[in-house]
diguanylate cyclase
Amino acid sequence: MPPGNPGSDSESRRYCARLNYTFVMFAIAGLSCFLLFDYFEVPNAWQLLWAGRFLLIGICLLCVFLLRRNPQNPNGIVLFGAIASNLFFCFGAAMIDNVIALSLWNLSFATCMLIAMPAWLVWGWRYQLASSLPLIVFYIPIFTWLSPLQLTDLVGAGGAYLMTTLCIAPALAHARFSTFQRTVMLRLALEGRNAELNRVNQQLLTQQHELEYRANHDLLTSLPNRRFGLEFFEQVLLDSTRVRRCLSILFVDVDRLKHVNDSFGHAEGDHLIQLVAEGVAQAAGDQGMACRLGGDEFLVVLPGACDMASQQAATQLMRRLQERRLREGIAFPVDISIGRVTHDPVLQSDVDVDDLIQIADDRMYRQKRARRRAAAGLSDRQA
Ligand SMILES: Nc1nc2c(ncn2[C@@H]2O[C@H](COP(=O)(O)OP(=O)(O)OP(=O)(O)O)[C@@H](O)[C@H]2O)c(=O)[nH]1
């Protein structure tokens, strides 16, 4: 087959090899079945026929071995076995000395041809012709030369039918081979379309993930957004109530963001929000979650954290922000106010997220006012 021919790709060769492999296995089974036929129907020459059959079985086994080792040339390998079988068939027919047995012999070959159908499906007409040629050319001469019967006996015993079939077989093979080629072409086209669909699917999946991410996250800080954060908080509250363990939240608000925006520029205001976002994410740790509620407000949910742990988390958060400010020489103030609430389902009655957030918000404002008063007092004293 020329390169680029749709039937020449290695996948279709493997397909041919599989079909041919099955065909050869059937041939072995067929050859073995007809051993009894030889024994009972050709009593004068069954030993010779058996020798021929075993030789053929050997050739078939060799074909199987070669097909396994080299599936890239499946038709060439099976052609070798087919020519040998045809020659055996010519000589075998000449050994038979009664017409009924000869009819059965011809019938056996027709059966073999039926078994060979799947292989013809993928054979080109040239292979088909090459495999039939020994029979077309040598059957009658060998029969006339060796058989005790007359040529008219052969014609009556299905010989004419067999010869006609053999002559039209290459044409059939051609038609089937074209169908096979079209099937392979369609399969390749389908594979192409499948690959394209997979690619588009992958793109859609990526887009879907991106959309999901955008729907659930805040773009400036990459933290979960308010909706996602409150859903998470609700779930954590439910779980805490169920397993009766504490949970804490930190309501974090950036101090004097407006002043930073106005004095240092909006970009620095954004930078401040990002610094605080990184801080709250760190405070939330692996078990908790920090989200941006909006503007300069953040919520940190700490599942399993009781009063002490949440106090530590809040102190650490403030300290880390100041350390970072010093370390990076940030010009604007990096101050936050935190409203902290701990809920212990063992000691307290049921609450909902809004109650807890409201309490935390109030505490945050109280702290903010206290810090403002402290700052104002400090400046008065300094003055
Ligand atoms: N740069 C920047 N500013 C924002 C963003 N979201 C909200 N702001 C600004 O943040 C400011 C928040 O103002 P306030 O709620 O009064 O708070 P504040 O200025 O931090 O003052 P206190 O909270 O009272 O200390 C407003 O000026 C908003 O315009 C943002 O994403 N980026």
The chain has two domains: 6-194, 226-382. Residues 6-194 form one domain. The CA atoms of residues 63 and 78 lie 6 Å apart. The radius of gyration is 44 Å.
